[in-house]
């Protein structure tokens, strides 16, 4: 039995900040976007899917979006952002995708703790995200049943 207990929120924050890599964070963002589009502004798509994703856009709209953004067709990924005046296109290599995810760690933690109820791509994190708000976790991120807690008089 352990003495170190964490609330659900503490466990999620600790796990995300101290046990996930930038690659992991990018994966979590991908899962959250597929569930609720919560991080749509940082959803990167493989460049191989460019034609399919933008097939309904006019060539001029695509040209303007490339001009307004930072875009290199030789990069491996791209994202579409809407800025109020239309579409903007950005491209990136995997390292930039990871950096973008890492820069949003506070938003990721907040969303997982307060708003999200879907899969994350990581079973251990899923267990914490889907647990009741009053759940407690040990230092191994395993939920502690109320019956396992010491009784205080």
List the helices and strands and how they pair.
Elements: E1 6-7, H1 8-19, H2 22-36, E2 45-46, H3 50-53, H4 59-68, E3 77-82, E4 87-92, H5 94-103, H6 105-114, H7 123-129, E5 136-137, E6 143-144
Antiparallel strand pairs: 1-5, 2-3, 3-4, 5-6
Helix pairs in contact: 1-6, 2-5
Radius of gyration: 20 Å
Please give the number of β-strands.
Answer: 6
Helix content: 40-55%
- Give the percentage of residues in beta strands: 5-15%
Uncertain residue segments:
none
- Number of discrete domains: 2
Number of H- or I-type helical stretches:
7
H/E topology pattern: EHHEHHEEHHHEE
What does this structure look like?
The protein folds into two domains: 76 residues, no CATH class; 52 residues, no CATH class. It has a three-stranded antiparallel beta sheet with strand order 1-5-6. The chain has a three-stranded antiparallel beta sheet with strand order 2-3-4. The longest helix is centred in the N-terminal third of the chain and has 15 residues. The protein has seven helices and six strands; from the N terminus they run E-H-H-E-H-H-E-E-H-H-H-E-E. It is an alpha+beta fold and 153 residues long.
Short characterization:
The protein has 153 residues and is of the alpha+beta class.
Please name the defining characteristics of this protein.
153 residues, 2 domains, three-stranded antiparallel β-sheet, alpha+beta
